[in-house]
Known about the structure:
Elements: H1 3-19, E1 35-40, H2 47-54, H3 57-62, E2 67-72, H4 76-85, E3 90-93, H5 95-103, E4 109-117, E5 119-123, E6 139-141, H6 148-158, E7 172-173, H7 181-187, E8 192-196, H8 199-207, E9 210-213, E10 225-231, H9 233-238, H10 240-259, H11 261-276, H12 282-289, E11 292-294, H13 300-312, H14 329-332
Parallel strand pairs: 1-2, 1-3, 6-7, 6-8
Antiparallel strand pairs: 3-10, 4-10, 4-11, 5-8, 5-9
Amino acid sequence: MKKGLLSFAFLILFAGLLAGCGAANDESATGNKEKIVIGYFPNINHVPAMVAKDQALYEEQLGDGTTVEYRTFADGGAFMTALKTGDVDAGLVGPGPAMNNYTTGADVKIIAGASTGGTVVLAREGVEINSPEDFAGKVFATPAVGCTHDVQYETYLQESGITSERIGGTMKHLPGNPATYSALLQSGKIDIAVAPEPWAAVIEYETGAEVVIPWNEVSFGETLPASVMVTSGKLASENPELVQKIIDAHKEAVQFIEDNPEEAKAITLKDIEETTGQGLEKKVVDLAWERIGFTYEVDQDAVQAFADSSYALKFLKEQPDFTNLIDKQFINSQKTASK
């Protein structure tokens, strides 16, 4: 791996951990927020937040009386902790952490989609994968046990009767930060990397690893949100006008990406470099961009199917019902707050 990308990998984690700390937001006597904190990750699936930040879309929607602060996180667990403690008001996170926390009683609502796709399965150079059966006995890495990418990969293989050692199969699982996958592949410690973008593109360019399950063939690859906009149920019910303004800004960001892809890429490169202190190569972003779609819509059926699969794979102890997890009233609203 190139030195610059290696430094970037570790700085991503460091910057995210630092950003996880912070005080709760102030509230005025009328209940209107004087400060809104938006959380996101410095990766390609979270571009809508980067664009909204760069274009001051939240600030324009919320008005002069509200200060907007942005915080980045290294993983979904850290983000969800901040949401539960009130250290962030809304932001982007993978659907897996949102679902898992909801099943344990967390006050969380998915109020919009943000992106789809972006999960790529790669095999170490020299590892022959010609059919699903070839994954048996291999060591694979995902960001966490039961995370979005883990469930997508294991669902895909379960259809061929291949499962991990966790549930009696032969695949060995090594969860960990995607920033380390290139080194793990090159050292032979893992055979398979199940990587979100931009890590998949970095791995492909820097290690010679081969894509063996493309983003649009892995389970739920084209339908499941890769990232979603969430907030607390309390904020959604007590201050719906504020949440509507957040969603209006989010929708503008998604439209900006569709209308101005090259400018959105430039914003992404700038934001990642400013957040982590290290930049990505343009070719990495270009490749990752081809594997991701950006949308504020959210497929409720896909979310429930994903949850059912999580239960079938024994990541969840009880059959989940996410009827009340997703609240579409804000994305369905035709009213956009005036700027």
